[in-house]
Amino acid sequence: MPLLLISKGVFAADDVPAIAAASSIKFALDEVAQQFKADTGRKVRITYGSSGNFVAQIKHGAPFELFLSADERYTQQLSQAGKAQGNGVIYAVGKLALAAPKNSPLVLDGDLNGLKQLIKNQQLKRFAIANPDHAPYGERAKEVLQNLGLWDTIQTQLIFGENVSQAAQFTLSGSTQGGLVALSLASAARFKARAHYVVMPQSLYSPLNQRMVLTLKAGQTASEFYRYIQTDKAQQTFAEYGFGKVVN
């Protein structure tokens, strides 16, 4: 999609929309928002958190004008509830990574053999994932652990982050020996300086099609930002943070 050319100063000065976004896209979306401001002169105000929690907030009247989910199932819930403008579009495809602090005894591999070995040797103390009850990356981490036969045996060592960003913080801080987190966070420079990671095979979990929708409260700037995220320039930024190619 070609880059939109938007004239600066066209919108009302007080049109700074509240945006709800999955925490997995923080580094990428912050950069896209800066590009949007440079190209259009317009600003957005972004709140990051878990997709499931945002759905509940928007249903109860939260003033968000655009919702970028980590899993399209959550935007579909808003559409079905009549709280969104149509079905929206997929803006990114998420990926999982296994990460560990550089001083961790956990050996990283896509089959989690290193994790299995730590469990077998009773050396695993804490392992982080996002809460699978309302965070899509937590749901997919649970799928990986189930598919590799580890879910039941790792229960007492699991530490749940409220969202995948918090799970990544637990992993980065050294309070755990590792975690399953978003590749987009694990591959960021500030994370790589303190931790290692490997990309998990996508065959181990359901696709993370990250969809966005405009809410019924959306104004002009939110609508322009929604279109801007779909441009080649913004999509290249998402790709640089490890997101997969979008096919709508």
UniProtKB/TrEMBL annotation:
Gene3D superfamilies: Periplasmic binding protein-like II. Pfam families: SBP_bac_11. CDD domains: PBP2_AvModA. It comes from Shewanella youngdeokensis. PANTHER family: MOLYBDATE-BINDING PERIPLASMIC PROTEIN (PTHR30632), TUNGSTATE_MOLYBDATE_CHROMATE-BINDING PROTEIN MODA (PTHR30632:SF14). Keywords: Metal-binding, Signal. This is Molybdate ABC transporter substrate-binding protein. Belongs to the bacterial solute-binding protein ModA family.
